[in-house]
Amino acid sequence: MISTLHIKNIGIIEDLNIDFNDGFNVLTGETGAGKTLIIGALGIISGGRFSKDMIRNGEKYSFVEVNIFCPNNPDSIDGNIIVSREIYSNGRNSCKINGRLVTVNELKEFMEDYVNIHGQQDNQNLLNEAKHIYYLDGFIGKEILELKNNYVQLYKRYNEINTKLKENYGDEQEKERKLDLLNYQLNEIKNAHLKVGEDINLQEQHNLMKNSEKLQENLQEIDENLSNQAIESVSNSIRCLEKISNYGEQYESKLNELKSIYYEIQELSRDISSMKEEVYFDESKRDDIEKRLDEIFLLKRKYGNSIEEILEYKNKIEKEIFDIENLDEINNKLKKEKNEIKTQMLEICENMSIKRKEYAKILSNRMNEELKDLEMNNAKLRVNVEKLEEDKFNINGLDKVEFMICTNKGEEEKELSKIASGGEMSRVMLAIKTVLADVDEVLTLVFDEIDTGISGKAAKAVGEKLKSISKNHQVMVVTHSASIAAKGKYNYFISKKTMENKTYTNIKQLNEEETIKEIARISSGDVTDISIAHAKELRKVS
Fold first, then answer.
1. What is the DSSP letter of 441?
2. Helix (H, G, I), strand (E, B) or coil at 4
3. Do 167 and 271 contact (CB within 8 A), yes or no?
4. Could you tell me if 47 and 68 are in contact, meaning their C-beta atoms sit under 8 angstroms apart?
């Protein structure tokens, strides 16, 4: 269950800590005090959408954190799981589970096992026939999950094959045009005889050629200086030292050093002479290099930014030519695979249909029992499962699932979407949530204004149902109904105050006396002896 909710900088909420309890938690309070913002914060921490307009005026970020008490969960630390989400005005998100950074999608998937929020969007989903199959499959649970997973894998491959079969090349004339173009491109690349790294080597040679005159001038001068001056000068110096080397060991030593220098200068002179010869380029060779570079440049413009990319493109068009030339054979193989997959899909779809029809009856009976408890005694809800035609495969198989309802005796059964009453829709949704809550084992169920469009006995029945659900789940409800508030095990009052031109949200867990007064206020709009007596009566009945 959610033991603590911390909200910061969302709407009029500046910094709010709420300690929730197990069982039935009821939130009431002033209009515009922030009740919906609290539910919205639970939606945000569950991976829901967030608009930067929700950030409190003047602040740069919003922050939501929950502590989930789940002692038997291996992810918990000392029985607790701490989940947080920080959102900045520039759109940056930071989501964490026990301090570990996760993506918004990972956060959403994680929280689906812990929190289920019912709001007006659920009623919209109930009106959407396409969503009905998900309610039924959720009720069936593991018995259909493996079948569905196997089917989805086949369905993806089935669609891939269909896409490939549609990717033909038009008529025979169009196919020949495509082949002509591809063969032209292939021959152009092949005839170029490209080698990886060739363009880099050619460019280096070309750069040398462009600077050959400057290189030659300087190398020539160095060669002359070494050959005509340095070597001759050192040679003369050696002869001089030889004449005096017998007059002292130091002269002998310097003679040896000078001889070493002489040999090094000779070696250096030979190297410079060789380098000088290498920078003499034939103009025709330079033209050849420039033509080759131009050829490679044109190929790069057409087929890739590098020789590697051009060669990759060559491999690609070779395969495409092969595919076109062998199109009939390839298509026949694909069609054979498609038929094999279709046979497997039909078998799985048949098994899923059997399961769905079996559980549709069970779900219908369960929901009708819940509708009776919710003062819809004459209503009959039926989960209808129809088989679609072959080749109308969709992500869920070949079944069309639709909730049908008759709200009064003698009336014709209609699609659920034809119900006009918001109160009836809320109760149908609560019936479904009640049944599914028993199978999905989500720890916390949150209901935002489930009392919309209902009052009197119906509101009392909804309160009873919520109280019943809270025996096995933590339930949080935002309500304006005194009958529902009276059923609460823990009641919270949400208020707001204004200081220095800013509005702040406060929340307080009420004691029994305060709870009675709040029920009285909701019931009559004022706290009087009569409304207090009525509130005590509602509370006693609860």
1. -
2. strand
3. no
4. no
Q: In Å, what is the CA distance from 159 to each residue of 215, 353, 394, 483, 524?
A: 66, 21, 10, 53, 61
Rg over CA atoms, the chain: 42
8-state DSSP, 270: H
Query: What CA–CA distance (Å, rounded) separates 434 from 429?
Result: 9
C-alpha span between 154 and 444 (Å, rounded): 35
Residue 150 to residue 348: CA distance in whole angstroms: 8
Dist. CA 69–CA 72, nearest whole Å: 9
Q: Which CATH number fits domain 1-114+442-542: 3.30.1060.10, 3.40.50.300, 1.10.540.10, 2.115.10.20?
A: 3.40.50.300
pLDDT at 67: 94
pTM over 0.70: no
pLDDT over 90, % of the chain: 39
Residue carrying the six token digits 């992500």: 395
Which residue bears the tokens 């008529």? 171
525-537: average pLDDT: 88
Is there a contact between 99 and 82 (Cβ–Cβ < 8 Å)?
A: yes
For residues 33-60, average pLDDT: 88
Q: For residue 123, give the nearest of 433, 388, 399, 349 by alpha carbon.
A: 433
Phi and psi at residue 16, to the nearest 5°: -135, 130
Rounded to 10°, the helix 249-278/212-224 angle is 150
DSSP H/E element including 25: strand 24-29
Question: Where are the chain's structural domains?
Answer: 1-114+442-542, 172-325
Query: Which residues have C-beta within 8 Å of that of residue 246, sequence separation ≥ 6?
Result: 252
What ranges in 33-141 are assigned the alpha helix state H?
Answer: 35-45, 104-111, 120-127, 129-140
pLDDT tens column, 312-355: 999 999 998 988 888 888 888 889 999 999 999 999 999 999 99
Type of residue found at 379: A
Instruction: Write out the two tokens for 187.
Output: 């021959």
Q: State residue 499's pLDDT score.
A: 86
Percentage of the chain exceeding pLDDT 70: 94
The whole-chain average pLDDT of the chain stands at 86
- CB–CB of 426/458 below 8 Å? no
- Using the predicted structure, report yes or no on whether residue 385 has a pLDDT greater than 80: yes
